[in-house]
Amino acid sequence: MSALLRPGAPWSNWGRSESAHPAHVATPTSVDEIVEIVGYARDNGLTVKPVGAGHSFTAIAATTGIQLDIGAVDGVLAVDGNLVTLAAGTNLHQLPAMLAPYGLALANMGDIDRQTVAGATSTGTHGTGREFGGLATQIRAVTLVTADGGILRVSETENADLFPAARLGLGALGVLVDATVECVPAFLLSAVETPENFDAVVDGWEERVAAHDHFEFYVWPHTDRVLSKYNTRLAHHEPRHPVSKFGTWWEDEFMSNRVLAAKLELGRMLPKTTPAVNRLATRITGNRSYTDVSHEVFVSPRRTRFVEMEYAVPLEVVPEILREIRRLIDANGWIISFPIEVRAAAPDDVWLSTAHGRPTGYIALHRYWREDPTEYFRTIERIMMNYGGRPHWGKMHTRTAESLREAYPRFDDFVAVRDRLDPQRLFGNAYLERVLGA
């Protein structure tokens, strides 16, 4: 057996929605070691799956073969102007310090930064903003270790026919070992967070998205209120007005984590208290404005475990869907303690991007990890499908290759690339078999 392998152990993801027991675990520190591990798997009839931070809520990283922990393959490999090549195991939260010496930043970010670069781009991680795509759209080149042990560089000029697939590859095409990201000059964000009326925000959804660089809001079930977040991009030399240390602790740590955790436990044990607690939450949180470096505004600490389903839908149908979800919550007597997150993204040409070919709205449903999300998620998933929805690849859903083929115009093109690069399914698992076919 390869000296790089250790006996496997039980594994579970962050949200505790998936678990696995790989036969072997490996923690490579170089591309050469990854090549050796892939060769061992191929020669011994094993599958191999990279795993990063475990922040996907699906089983996309689960395996009974070799679990390849890429966390030690990290850091900045090269900088060429605003093009930064990052080792695949680099966590997003490491990037601000790494990019600061070059005066650079990611063009956009989601509100969680625990993921690795490889995991984030491979599952379609995104932020919000009508003119901004997900992380995969910022990728200008990737390097893969392929099933035959080769090292394959893919970009708009090298193996360009593979580029629309490789930027968001679900881990199905090979082991992603580095990615070149097009960054932007470091910038500030002016943030306004405020409670607003549900109907006013939903009725003005498209206008708000068009008028602001980054707009999102959270719908609080059992109330008529939402928490809106408006972020405006500013030059890095503009004055900063960050939240005070106490304000950061109060809003981001105490209210958004400790109080939220207590609220969710209370709602689980005494469900009837949830509507009143939700109404209270809309009155005591999320009313502030500040200006800070981009990552300090984009990212929020998320320490309370949850599970999530997120769907991408045509931008213009978001209001209809939100109203239908509210009617379903009331009609079914569901008690929902977690807010519903609503965001937007620009259309792109990445084959398996949830925003492929259309301006996109995102609607994300959450449940506390100790609660059963099945009925809530599956009922609303049917609504999303009726509107042409596409599930986030790293979040819970029940879709199969048959229905996903209808949702993605280039689905079969992606599958053809998979057949070409991994005909024996060395990088396969049950999740990929379900969503891409055998």
From TrEMBL:
- Give GO terms: molecular function aspect only: D-arabinono-1,4-lactone oxidase activity; FAD binding; L-gulono-1,4-lactone dehydrogenase activity
Pfam families assigned: ALO, FAD_binding_4
Residues in FAD-binding PCMH-type domain copies:
18-186
**Record's GO cellular component terms:** membrane
Q: Give the taxonomic lineage as stored in the record.
A: Bacteria, Bacillati, Actinomycetota, Actinomycetes, Micrococcales
Tell me which species this is from.
Conyzicola lurida
Keyword tags: Oxidoreductase
Q: Any idea what this protein is called?
A: FAD-linked oxidoreductase
Q: Which domain of life is it from?
A: Bacteria
